[in-house]
C-alpha cells in the first residue's frame, strides 16, 4: 500500500481515517458541546483529564524536538511543547476556576484508562520509534482538534457555555500551528521508505482512535473498573 502511495502523507492519512473522523465529529460529546447542552459533569471530567493529558503530550513533543534532524524542527516542536503546557493550561485554568477545581483536587484525580492509554502510547512511541512515526502519532491531536473546533464553531448555539474552548481550537493561532505540524509531518514522510510510511499511517490511525476514546470516556464518566 505504501509503495504505490502518492501525494502528501497528510492527504493519504486523512483519507484513510475520514470515516473515523466523521464518527468523532458526530459523537454525542461533540454534538452536545456544539449545542451547549453537554452536562457540566461530563465537561469537567474531560477538562481535568485533558489537563493531565497535555503534560504527557508536552513531553512527547519535547522528545520530538530532541529527535528532529534539523534545527527548524527542534524549534518547532519545542515551541509546540511550550504552547501545549502554557497556552492550553490557561484555557483549562479558566474552566478550573469556574468549576472550583483547585490544584489539590486536580493532583488527586488519577488518569482514567483512556487518558493513561493515550499518554503511555505517545511516550512509548516517542522513546522507541523513529522520528517519522512519532510525528504520525502526534498529528491527530492537533489536526482533529482543529477540524472539530471549526466544525463546532459553525454550528454552536448562542451563549454556549463552552465558547472559550470552541474559540481556542477554531482560532487562527491554533489553525496556523496545526498547518505547521502538518507541513512538518509531510516533510518527514517525503524520504521515508514505504515500510516506514506505513508505520506512520498505523500510528496516525491508532492516535485517531484514542482521540475518540478520550471524548467517549469523558461522556461516559469512565473510571477504572477495579
From TrEMBL:
Residues 28-220 form the Thiaminase-2/PQQC domain. Pfam families: TENA_THI-4. Gene3D superfamilies: Heme oxygenase-like. It comes from the Bacteria. This is Aminopyrimidine aminohydrolase.
